[in-house]
Design brief:
The structure holds two protein chains of two kinds.
Chain A (H helix, E strand, L loop, with lengths): L2 E4 L2 E4 L6 H8 L22 E6 L4 E4 L9 E4 L3 H15 L16 H9 L22 E3 L9 H9 L6 E3 L6 E3 L13 H5 L5 E3 L12 E2 L2 E2 L8 E7 L2 E7 L12 H5 L14 E2 L2 E2 L2 H19 L4 E4 L6 H14 L10 H12 L8 H5 L3 E5 L3 H4 L1 H12 L3 E5 L11 E3 L3 H9 L5 H12 L3 E6 H19 L6 E5 L5 H8 L8 H6 L5 E5 L3 H4 L3 H9 L3 E6 L4 H5 L2 E4 L8 E4 L4 E5 L9 H4 L21 H9 L5 H11 L16 E2 L22 E6 L6 H4 L13 E3 L1 H7 L6 E6 L2 E9 L7 E6 L15 E2 L1 E4 H4 L1
Parallel strand pairs in A: 1-5, 16-22, 17-18, 17-20, 18-19, 20-21, 22-23, 23-24, 28-32, 29-31
Antiparallel strand pairs in A: 1-2, 3-4, 3-5, 6-9, 7-8, 10-12, 11-12, 12-13, 14-15, 14-24, 25-26, 26-27, 28-33, 30-31, 30-34
Chain B lengths: L6 H13 L7 H12 L4 H11 L3 H10 L11 E6 L2 H5 L2 H12 L12 E6 L11 E3 L2 E3 L4 H16 L1
Parallel strand pairs in B: 1-2
Antiparallel strand pairs in B: 1-3, 3-4
The chains are: A alpha/beta, B alpha+beta.
C-alpha cells in the first residue's frame, strides 16, 4: 500500500491506486472528467494535471494515469499545472453552450464544478460553436450533443461496462458524435446509466425534463424495490411527487449502476389510482375509525372463534420490521405464524436461501471477481438485471459463464447456454453424479479459483436450491464454492428468515379452503396476483368473513377488502430490506405521503383549502399500523434493538444507516431440514412454463406508466424443431389451452430455448397476467386457430 | 439503380468473413468495395457491411465516419481531396484550393452541378515532399501549379465524356 504526499499531506492508497485516487481520498479537488471510479482512467480529457516533484516520473503528469508510489511527492499548486488545468478547462468549454439555465443537469453538473475548479471563468473565444442535430433516443434518455466535451464516458459506460450494442462514437476531430446508428430507442436494459455517467447535460432523464432543479429535490438514500438484489438508489422528489431515481453507490452490490426498471419504474408511487384513504367495504372512512374497527373486529373474532381462525400474510415487498411485527401480532392473537409469500414455492425458496450459511453466500462484488460462474435456472435480465452487469464484468476479466436454463437467455457477454427443461434441471441436480454435464461442470468448478453458483429461486424452487447447495458442497475441495440465490422481492430473504420457524408444510390456499379460517390480514401483498392460481385464490378470499388489507398499490384485493388501510411506500417511510445474499440495508423516507401538487393543482397553484393536513396524506407506514395494533411504542431504533434480542443473527441491525454498504446477517444457526415433494413432469409431454418478463412481471413495474413502452406483446414461445414436428409456422395464431384458461396468441420461434416446452412471459394488462412465474410448468395443449374452430 | 455490391462479391466477402477469427478486420475493404461500386456508402451499405461481418451497424458506422476517404454522402464522380496541412500551405496550397473553387464554381464540400467533381479538404495526404498536392479518387498529384491543375481538370472532363 503506497504512502505518498500531496500538497504536504500524507495519504495511504490501495495497491494499484492512482495519484488522482490519493487526491480524492484526501479531499483535494483535482478536476477530472474521463476518470470514474467504476470505469477507471483513460487520460482522454487532459484535465487532471498535477506536478510530480519526487517519483519515478517527474514533471507535469495526468494524475489519473500515474500509479501512486511510496515516498512520492506531488503538488497540485505548481504554477505550470494550474495554468495547464485552466487552459484545458477553457479549451473544453470553447464549444460548450451557455445554456445552463435551461439545462436539466444545472446544479449537479460536474462540468460546471470542475470548470470553476480548474480556474477557467471568463470566455475569450468569440467564434462560432460547433453544433449538432440531436437524435431521438426513445422515451428514457434525452440527448443534447452541443454540450458534449468528448470525455468518452458514455461509450465506456454503455458499450464497455453495460454491453450495449447500439451506441457508439462516430466521426472525428470537431465532429465527434456519441449516439446510435439511426434515431430510435436505446436497446440496452441499462441505458439510463448514461444519465448518471455523463459529466454534463448531454444525456438527461427524459421522463423528468424541465421539472425540478437538483437543489429543490428532496432526496434520501434508499434501496430499489424491484427485485431481490437490493441495489442502492437515490430517489428524488418534490411537491409530494416522486420524480426520479439515480443510482446510489454500494461497491459491494450494484457499484454505481442500476437497471432501467429501477430508474424509470418509480412512478407507481404517484399512480393516479393509488389508494390513499381508509375504506370499509369500499366506503371511504376516517383512518383512525378504520383502525379501531379492525382492532374491535379482530378481538371479537378471536374471542368467539379463537386465534386459529386468523391468518396473517406478510410480503417480500414489506420492510423486515413490518414482517417481524406481523409475527408478533400472530403471537398476540394466538394465530398461527404468518405466511411471508402467498406463493408457496417462492416462500420455500426464500426459506431455503435464508438457511444457507452466511459464509457460503456470494455478493455481487464477489461475482464480479469470480472466474467461473454457473447459472442454474436463472434469467438475469428478467429476474435481477444488475446481476447481468456483474456477469459481464466477470467475463471481461476472463471468467467463464455457463448457463443451464430452459429460456432463450440473453446476456450482455459471451456465455455457454445449455437449454435444459426445468424438470431435467431439477432431476439432474437430484443426482448430479449420474448427469454427464453436471459431473463435468463439477470438475471444472473444483479446479477454478473463485467459482460461484447462481440459482434462480423462481425456476428451481426451494427444493432446487437445496439440491444446488448439496451440489456446491460436493464441489468444495480446497476452497468454497459460493452460492448466489436469486429470489422474488426486495425482502424475500427477510421473509425466509422469519418463516423458517413456522410449520413448513402449510399452504395458504389450502388453509383458506379448509373453512376454519375466518379472517386474513394482508400486509403489502395481493395474494390474488402473487399466488400461482389467482382464480382459486380470489374465490377463497371472497369466502372470508374479514379480509383486512394494508397496501399502497391499486390491486383488486384492495378494492374488495372489508377493511382497507393505506400504507406508505418505501419512499415515504424508513425501514430495512434483506437482499438475496442476506445483506441488511436500511432505507430512509424521501417524501411525505400526499397527492402530488401537480395533480391537486392541475398544473397551477393547488386549491386553497383550510385543512391541517395535505390531501392524500392519510397513509401510515405498515410498521406504524402494526405497532398501533400491538400497542408497541418503540421508535424504529428501539424496534431494531428489540429485533436483535430475539434474532441474534441480525445483530448488526441497529448499526445500519441508509446509504451505507449494508451489513451481512450472521449465521442463523440450524440448517433447514425442510423438504417439499414436487412431481416433476416427464420429458416428452408438452408443457407450458410461465416466466418473468423483463418488464411488467414485478408488481411495481406493472403500475409504472413510464415502463409501458418496454412491455412486450403477448406471445407463446416454441423451439422451431418442436414447431416443425407439429406443423406450425413462425408468427402463426394459435390457441393455448391450460388449466388457467384458453389463450389466443401468436407463436414465436426461439431457437435457443429448451425443446418439449412452451414458454409464456407473464405480462400485466394482457390475458397472460393470470399466469404467475415461480411454479412448475403446466400441462397444456396447443392448436392452430383454424383447427380449433 | 446501382447495386451496393454484386451478389458474387457479397458471397466472396461472406466466405472470407467465415474463415477469419475477427471478421471486423475486413470492414475497410468492404466499405471500399461498396464505394467503388456505388460511388459512396449509403446507410444501406453500412447495414450490408454489418450483416456480412456479423457486427452491429454502429460498429461499421464508427469506422465509416472516422475516415474521410469513405464517403457517407453522395459525392461527384471525381472527389478531389485538397491537402490542407502545413507543408502544402507553405508551398501555395491555399492558392491551389482557391483556384480549384474558382474554376469549378463550387466551394469546399460542394459538388459541381454536372456531378463530376466534389471538393474536400483533407489533413494530410502524406505527400509533403511533393507539396502542394491533391488526390482525385485514388490518384495522387503533387508539385501542383494552377496551370497544371487546369490540365488535370480538362483531362478528367475528357475522360468522363469518353
Amino acid at each position: 500500500m503506497p504512502t505518498l504526499t500531496i500538497d504536504n499531506q500524507t495519504v495511504i492508497v490501495a495497491e494499484g491506486g492512482s495519484v488522482l485516487d490519493a487526491a480524492i481520498a484526501l479531499g483535494i479537488v483535482v478536476p477530472h472528467y474521463c476518470y470514474h471510479p467504476a470505469l477507471g482512467a483513460v487520460g482522454a480529457c487532459r484535465q487532471c494535471a498535477v506536478t510530480i516533484l519526487e517519483g519515478s516520473q517527474k514533471g507535469l503528469k495526468m494524475a489519473c494515469l500515474i500509479p501512486a508510489e511510496d515516498d512520492m511527492q506531488v503538488s497540485t499548486c505548481e504554477e505550470e499545472a494550474v495554468a495547464f488545468r485552466a487552459q484545458v478547462g477553457e479549451w473544453l468549454m470553447t464549444n460548450h453552450p451557455h445554456d445552463c439555465p435551461v439545462c436539466d443537469e444545472g446544479g449537479e453538473c460536474q462540468l460546471q464544478e470542475m470548470t470553476i475548479g480548474a480556474g477557467h471563468g471568463i470566455r475569450r473565444y468569440r467564434g462560432n460553436k460547433r453544433t449538432y442535430l440531436n437524435q431521438d433516443l426513445g422515451p428514457f434518455v434525452a440527448q443534447e450533443m452541443n454540450r458534449c466535451i468528448q470525455c468518452y464516458r458514455c461509450v465506456r459506460t454503455y458499450k464497455d461496462y453495460c454491453g450495449g450494442e447500439d451506441f457508439g462514437v462516430m466521426g472525428s476531430q470537431q465532429r465527434v458524435f456519441f449516439g446510435r446508428f439511426k434515431d430510435g430507442p436505446l436497446e440496452s436494459d441499462f441505458s439510463g446509466n448514461l444519465i448518471d455517467f455523463c459529466p454534463t447535460g448531454v444525456f438527461t432523464d427524459r421522463t423528468n425534463r424541465f421539472r425540478t432543479r437538483s437543489w429543490d429535490l428532496q432526496q434520501a438514500p434508499s434501496i430499489c424495490p424491484h427485485c431481490s438484489l437490493g441495489c442502492s438508489i437515490l430517489p428524488g422528489g418534490r411537491y409530494q411527487e416522486l420524480q426520479r431515481v439515480r443510482a446510489g453507490g454500494n461497491r459491494l452490490t450494484n457499484d454505481s449502476f442500476i437497471c432501467d426498471r429501477a430508474r424509470f419504474g418509480s412512478d407507481w408511487n404517484n399512480h393516479p389510482k393509488r389508494p390513499r384513504e381508509a375504506r370499509i367495504s369500499g366506503e371511504k372512512v376516517e383512518f383512525p375509525y378504520a383502525l379501531e374497527l379492525l382492532e374491535e373486529r379482530l378481538e371479537k373474532l378471536v374471542e368467539e372463534y379463537g386465534g386459529e381462525t386468523l391468518r396473517l400474510l406478510g410480503s417480500p415487498r414489506a420492510s423486515f420490521e413490518a414482517n417481524l411485527l406481523l409475527k408478533k401480532l400472530a403471537e398476540k392473537y394466538g394465530a398461527p405464524a404468518p405466511y411471508y409469500d402467498a406463493h408457496p414455492r417462492r416462500a420455500f425458496a426464500a426459506r431455503m436461501a435464508a438457511s444457507i450459511p452466511s459464509g457460503q453466500l456470494a455478493s455481487l462484488k464477489q461475482l464480479r471477481e469470480s472466474d467461473l460462474i454457473l447459472l442454474v435456472g436463472v434469467d438475469p435480465l428478467a429476474e435481477a438485471p444488475v446481476l447481468a452487469l456483474a456477469l459481464r464484468q466477470a467475463a471481461r476479466a476472463g471468467a467463464r459463464i455457463v448457463a443451464l436454463d430452459p429460456r432463450p437467455l440473453e446476456l450482455p457477454c459471451d456465455f455457454e447456454h445449455h437449454p435444459l427443461t426445468q424438470e431435467s434441471l431439477l432431476r439432474g441436480l437430484s443426482a448430479p453424479e449420474e448427469n454427464e454435464l453436471l459431473e463435468s461442470l463439477r470438475q471444472q468448478l473444483e479446479t477454478s479459483q473463485r467459482p460461484v453458483l447462481v440459482g434462480g429461486g423462481e425456476l428451481l424452487g426451494g427444493e432446487g436450491l437445496r439440491l444446488l447447495l448439496h451440489f456446491s458442497e460436493s464441489c468444495c475441495g480446497s476452497h468454497d464454492c459460493l452460492i448466489f440465490p436469486v429470489l422474488h422481492g426486495p425482502n424475500s430473504f427477510g421473509g425466509g428468515i422469519l418463516g423458517a420457524t413456522g410449520d413448513s408444510n402449510r399452504n395458504l390456499i389450502e388453509d383458506l379452503e379448509n373453512g376454519n379460517v375466518r379472517a386474513l390480514i394482508c400486509v403489502e401483498t395481493d395474494p390474488a396476483i402473487e399466488h400461482s392460481e389467482p382464480g382459486r385464490m380470489q374465490l377463497a378470499l371472497s369466502r372470508l368473513e374479514l379480509l383486512a388489507v394494508f397496501d399502497h398499490l391499486p390491486t383488486n384485493t384492495v378494492a374488495t377488502a372489508d377493511i382497507f388501510l393505506p400504507t406508505r411506500t418505501i419512499y415515504e417511510c424508513a425501514g430495512t430490506f434483506i437482499n438475496n445474499e442476506g445483506r441488511m440495508q436500511a432505507f430512509d423516507p424521501v417524501l411525505e405521503p400526499g397527492i402530488p401538487i401537480v395533480v391537486t393543482g392541475s398544473g397551477g397553484h393547488p386549491p386553497r383549502q383550510f385543512e391541517t393536513t395535505p390531501p392524500g396524506s392519510a397513509p401510515r407506514s405498515a410498521v406504524h399500523l402494526l405497532q398501533w395494533l400491538l400497542k408497541d411504542r418503540n421508535d424504529l431504533f428501539g424496534l431494531r434493538r428489540q429485533i436483535i434480542k430475539e434474532l441474534p443473527c441480525l445483530r448488526d441491525l441497529d448499526r445500519l444507516a441508509a446509504g451505507d454498504n449494508g451489513r451481512r446477517i450472521a449465521d442463523c444457526g440450524d440448517t433447514l431440514e425442510e423438504s417439499r415433494t414436487e412431481i416433476w413432469a416427464q420429458e416428452g409431454e408438452l408443457q407450458v412454463l410461465p416466466i418473468t418478463a423483463r418488464y411488467g412481471s414485478d408488481l411495481y413495474s406493472r403500475w409504472s406508466q413510464s415502463l409501458t413502452s418496454r412491455f412486450e406483446e403477448p406471445s407463446v414461445w416454441i423451439h422451431p424443431v418442436e414447431a416443425a414436428e407439429r406443423g406450425f409456422v413462425n408468427g402463426q395464431k394459435v390457441v393455448l389451452r391450460t388449466v388457467v384458461g384458453h389463450f389466443h396468441l401468436p407463436l414465436v420461434f426461439k431457437a435457443k430455448m429448451a425443446r418439449g416446452r412452451l414458454i409464456v412471459p407473464c405480462l400485466p394488462g394482457t390475458p397472460l397476467e393470470v399466469f404467475t412465474p415461480g411454479g412448475l410448468s403446466l400441462p397444456c395443449k396447443i392448436y392452430s386457430e383454424v383447427d380449433n374452430a | 439503380m446501382k447495386k451496393l455490391l454484386l451478389k458474387k462479391e457479397i458471397d466472396a466477402f461472406r466466405k472470407k468473413a467465415q474463415k477469419l477469427e475477427h471478421p471486423r478486420e475486413m470492414v475497410i475493404d468492404l466499405l471500399r468495395a461498396i464505394q467503388d461500386h456505388f460511388g459512396w456508402v449509403p446507410d444501406a451499405g453500412v447495414e450490408l457491411a454489418a450483416d456480412i461481418l456479423g457486427v452491429p451497424p454502429i460498429e461499421v458506422e464508427e469506422v465509416a465516419t472516422f475516415y474521410d476517404k469513405i464517403y457517407r454522402q453522395k459525392v461527384g464522380r471525381y472527389p478531389i481531396h485538397i491537402c490542407d496541412s502545413i507543408c502544402c500551405w507553405i508551398r501555395g496550397g491555399e492558392e491551389i484550393a482557391a483556384h480549384l473553387q474558382q474554376q469549378l464554381g463550387i466551394k469546399l464540400g460542394q459538388t459541381t452541378s454536372d456531378g463530376l467533381f466534389t471538393l474536400l479538404p483533407t489533413c494530410c495526404l502524406g505527400g509533403c515532399g511533393r507539396a502542394p498536392s491533391i488526390m482525385v479518387g485514388k490518384r495522387f498529384y503533387g508539385h501542383l501549379t494552377c496551370d497544371g491543375l487546369d490540365q488535370i481538370i480538362a483531362q478528367l472532363r475528357e475522360e468522363a465524356v469518353g
